[in-house]
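Lecture notes, structural biology module. Today: joint structure prediction for complexes of two components.
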Amino acid sequence: MDELNFEGYTCPVPIRPTDTVLLGHGSGGTLSRDLLNRLFLPELGRAAPRLLDDSAVVAIGDQRFAITTDSHVVSPLFFPGGDIGRLAICGTVNDLAMVGAQPVALTCGFVIEEGLSFELLQRVVASMKAAAQEAGVYIAAGDTKVVQKGGADQLFINTSGIGTIPDGIDISGARAHAGDVIIVSGTLGDHGIAVLSAREGLGFETKLESDVAPLNDLVQAMIGAGGIHVLRDPTRGGLATSLVEISEQSNVTIEIAEQVLPVKPAVKAACEMLGFDPLYIANEGKLVAFVKESAADRVLDVMKKTKYGEQAVVIGRVIGSGKSPAKQSCGQVRLKTAIGGTRLVDMLPGEMLPRIC
Amino acid sequence: MDELNFEGYTCPVPIRPTDTVLLGHGSGGTLSRDLLNRLFLPELGRAAPRLLDDSAVVAIGDQRFAITTDSHVVSPLFFPGGDIGRLAICGTVNDLAMVGAQPVALTCGFVIEEGLSFELLQRVVASMKAAAQEAGVYIAAGDTKVVQKGGADQLFINTSGIGTIPDGIDISGARAHAGDVIIVSGTLGDHGIAVLSAREGLGFETKLESDVAPLNDLVQAMIGAGGIHVLRDPTRGGLATSLVEISEQSNVTIEIAEQVLPVKPAVKAACEMLGFDPLYIANEGKLVAFVKESAADRVLDVMKKTKYGEQAVVIGRVIGSGKSPAKQSCGQVRLKTAIGGTRLVDMLPGEMLPRIC
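The predicted structure, tokenised, for the full assembly:
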């Protein structure tokens, strides 16, 4: 299928400009990108080459630091397998890990709706503590704001973080090379479907649990094995959006195989029932890695020995590089379907599951 | 009045424990402290000695860093003299500056209510850009979440920041000494009253403007003059709360003179009309400094030559140290009133002006 001609293709879901912010602008997909390109980058942007990585990289003296921020607005606050507190810690720890950084300190900013019960807040904070201990990070600074009843939906938590990047580590979405092997660390879509089932009270028969977990130990083990070019945690927008971003950053063509994508039967069933594609569902304890071909077996072995990488599997490859920039937004990620066809994979166009993280 | 006996005093406004979070828990005063002591510190606390400073101080290798976070929920988003964007940048720049740090990078996390107009968001972001340029900082990383209509009140912005603390700088609320001269950089209460007037449409005849401004240049100039022991920006809870915090951290007794407190006539009039005390009103472009006696004149001279320190004035002194910890929460800050009496100054007990920052 490599000789497929994409010349005539256009993006399948053109986004109309709007005058107001839509839910989809927070999706992590195309509308989020639109907001970034229309507003935030022209006004506030700098450090363009690494723009789309999970953390910014800042040099202070001889030391490189990773810096990242995430606001968490997940609803409901508690869901099978996790809660907003664990999510807030893991989300930021993982963003730091995805550029190879070792987390140093986190900050937490709480926005609380008046009337929230202390008991609930206590459970969230205890969960943050447990997650921070698991990840080996600490919270250096915090802030609390309270808004009147109805001014916010229960509780939002911003977590920012800083980590140090050891010398010699250079991991970025811009570093994918032709020939790289693409590995995911485990099953796809668990988090999004778990939150959705808790929110809508869907009551699936099988137990669906979020995968929310800190991946910094997994990443350290992988770095020890060598050959890591790209790491990303496919949160909002799912694996598909992460792969499209990487293909654009590195200007490469990616091919993945549908048959080998790891999806739990319960998640698959829920997706079929609800009309979702697991490729676009958020994960909070998974990563996708682009690894030098010669190191791939070694990295996979190491991953399988860790708690959060046991089910790691190769899902595809970088099959070429150097597509013209004009065609970057469509057609650089291809999915070999189970029946032998090829499907183009684009970013999540709008919003599928709002307030998933 | 120094021989006044405080033995029999109890706190004037005992705070009853509640089962739910109140607006006052976000006030920066006693209820905020209660939340910190009951929940956040036991679970997440570390680095106790500097606990109450505006930034945490973290050492990485030989370099000390200041780290801070603030969520901004001010209502309305635009007010005379500023807006949530300028506030978000200046608040974090100032927190870094208050431990003598030079800001390196900020992060911004937006929580946006679905339906917010792009035009409004654009104005906020443009204001952030202008404030960041004025302060000489840049925004290294950002995040955007969108919640459904009614899930948040228009727009919240978290700003976290990191700065480097040069060798030899040791500025903390724990460093006040007997004899220190206390200086404020300008008039008190401008921000809180400006936001309130905009929110309530009070239509005062005189123009009231927020003082929201980045103070890092002012602080650098002061540090150059030497002898700076303590810096703090009296935001939520006002100057009174800052002074009580410092008196507790350093275990000292402070005396300030009501007659010399700089308050604009319009702010004074508004406070009299509304029953507020300017000592408890938030400022966003002011600092209070505790300076070694021998350096005080020099520091004051330097401050008066800067844009945001022109109206700097000495307001009092540290008159003693070493009160027993049991009595710390009451009676360590005294106000010499205009008619010659002495009033005890306590922290803001509950909430006077919600969503002021």
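Point to remember: Chain A has a mean pLDDT of 89.
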